[in-house]
Write a structure and sequence with these properties.
single chain; 434 Repressor (Amino-terminal Domain); 2 domains; 3-stranded antiparallel beta sheet; 25% strand; binds zinc ion
Length: 118
Protein backbone atom coordinates (compact mmCIF):
# COMPACT_ATOMS: atom_id res chain seq x y z
CA UNK A 1 0.00 0.00 0.00
CA UNK A 2 2.88 2.37 -0.67
CA UNK A 3 0.68 4.17 -3.17
CA UNK A 4 -1.01 5.80 -0.19
CA UNK A 5 2.25 7.43 0.81
CA UNK A 6 2.91 8.48 -2.77
CA UNK A 7 -0.52 10.07 -3.11
CA UNK A 8 -0.33 11.61 0.35
CA UNK A 9 2.98 13.27 -0.47
CA UNK A 10 1.67 14.45 -3.83
CA UNK A 11 -1.18 16.12 -1.99
CA UNK A 12 1.24 17.54 0.59
CA UNK A 13 -0.59 15.98 3.51
CA UNK A 14 1.08 14.73 6.66
CA UNK A 15 0.10 11.38 8.17
CA UNK A 16 -1.68 13.35 10.91
CA UNK A 17 -3.68 15.45 8.45
CA UNK A 18 -4.72 12.43 6.43
CA UNK A 19 -5.67 10.51 9.59
CA UNK A 20 -7.73 13.47 10.81
CA UNK A 21 -9.63 13.64 7.53
CA UNK A 22 -10.44 9.95 7.82
CA UNK A 23 -11.30 10.22 11.49
CA UNK A 24 -8.71 7.63 12.45
CA UNK A 25 -5.45 7.38 14.33
CA UNK A 26 -2.17 8.44 12.71
CA UNK A 27 -0.71 5.01 13.51
CA UNK A 28 -3.26 3.40 11.18
CA UNK A 29 -1.99 5.53 8.29
CA UNK A 30 1.60 4.64 9.22
CA UNK A 31 0.70 0.93 9.21
CA UNK A 32 -0.91 1.19 5.75
CA UNK A 33 2.16 2.91 4.39
CA UNK A 34 4.57 0.40 5.88
CA UNK A 35 2.44 -2.47 4.62
CA UNK A 36 1.73 -3.79 8.14
CA UNK A 37 -1.95 -3.29 7.58
CA UNK A 38 -4.35 -2.59 4.73
CA UNK A 39 -7.19 -0.09 4.85
CA UNK A 40 -10.76 -1.29 5.01
CA UNK A 41 -12.93 -0.67 1.99
CA UNK A 42 -14.67 2.29 3.61
CA UNK A 43 -11.30 3.94 4.16
CA UNK A 44 -10.13 3.08 0.66
CA UNK A 45 -13.19 4.79 -0.77
CA UNK A 46 -12.52 7.83 1.39
CA UNK A 47 -8.85 7.87 0.37
CA UNK A 48 -9.82 7.67 -3.29
CA UNK A 49 -12.07 10.69 -2.74
CA UNK A 50 -9.34 12.70 -0.99
CA UNK A 51 -6.73 11.83 -3.60
CA UNK A 52 -9.19 12.10 -6.51
CA UNK A 53 -8.12 8.72 -7.84
CA UNK A 54 -9.75 5.32 -8.12
CA UNK A 55 -9.61 2.57 -5.51
CA UNK A 56 -7.93 0.47 -8.20
CA UNK A 57 -5.11 2.96 -8.48
CA UNK A 58 -4.61 2.91 -4.71
CA UNK A 59 -4.63 -0.88 -4.55
CA UNK A 60 -1.97 -1.10 -7.25
CA UNK A 61 0.65 -0.34 -4.65
CA UNK A 62 -0.03 -3.62 -2.87
CA UNK A 63 2.83 -5.96 -2.07
CA UNK A 64 1.94 -8.38 -4.82
CA UNK A 65 1.96 -5.74 -7.53
CA UNK A 66 5.31 -4.13 -8.13
CA UNK A 67 5.23 -0.66 -9.58
CA UNK A 68 7.56 -0.22 -12.47
CA UNK A 69 8.47 3.02 -14.13
CA UNK A 70 10.28 3.55 -17.38
CA UNK A 71 13.02 6.06 -18.04
CA UNK A 72 14.16 7.90 -21.13
CA UNK A 73 17.76 8.29 -22.22
CA UNK A 74 19.13 11.57 -20.78
CA UNK A 75 21.04 12.13 -24.04
CA UNK A 76 18.63 11.34 -26.87
CA UNK A 77 15.31 10.86 -25.07
CA UNK A 78 14.75 7.32 -26.35
CA UNK A 79 12.73 5.11 -24.02
CA UNK A 80 14.98 2.79 -22.05
CA UNK A 81 14.03 0.01 -19.62
CA UNK A 82 11.42 -0.11 -16.89
CA UNK A 83 12.50 -0.53 -13.31
CA UNK A 84 10.64 -1.71 -10.27
CA UNK A 85 10.51 1.23 -7.92
CA UNK A 86 8.45 -0.38 -5.17
CA UNK A 87 11.55 -1.19 -3.14
CA UNK A 88 12.59 -0.17 0.35
CA UNK A 89 16.03 1.04 -0.71
CA UNK A 90 17.53 2.91 -3.64
CA UNK A 91 19.19 0.73 -6.29
CA UNK A 92 21.63 1.95 -8.88
CA UNK A 93 22.37 0.59 -12.31
CA UNK A 94 24.10 1.91 -15.39
CA UNK A 95 24.08 1.05 -19.06
CA UNK A 96 24.64 2.21 -22.58
CA UNK A 97 21.79 3.62 -24.63
CA UNK A 98 21.17 1.33 -27.63
CA UNK A 99 20.11 4.33 -29.67
CA UNK A 100 22.87 6.91 -29.17
CA UNK A 101 25.54 4.71 -27.54
CA UNK A 102 26.07 7.05 -24.58
CA UNK A 103 26.25 5.99 -20.93
CA UNK A 104 23.50 6.56 -18.41
CA UNK A 105 22.96 5.79 -14.72
CA UNK A 106 19.60 4.98 -13.22
CA UNK A 107 18.80 5.27 -9.53
CA UNK A 108 15.49 3.72 -8.56
CA UNK A 109 13.60 2.69 -5.46
CA UNK A 110 11.36 4.11 -2.73
CA UNK A 111 8.77 4.86 -5.40
CA UNK A 112 11.06 7.16 -7.36
CA UNK A 113 13.31 6.92 -10.35
CA UNK A 114 16.07 9.21 -11.57
CA UNK A 115 18.23 8.92 -14.63
CA UNK A 116 21.46 10.86 -15.15
CA UNK A 117 24.21 11.08 -17.74
CA UNK A 118 27.36 9.04 -17.43
ZN1 LIG B 1 20.37 7.76 -26.02
Amino acid sequence: MNKIKEYREQHKLSQEELARRLGIDRSSVAKWESGCNTPRLAHLLELAKIFRCSVDELAKGGDDMAISKSVNCPHCGRKLNSYTVDTASIQRTSGTCPSCGKRYTVEYGKGKIKVSKG
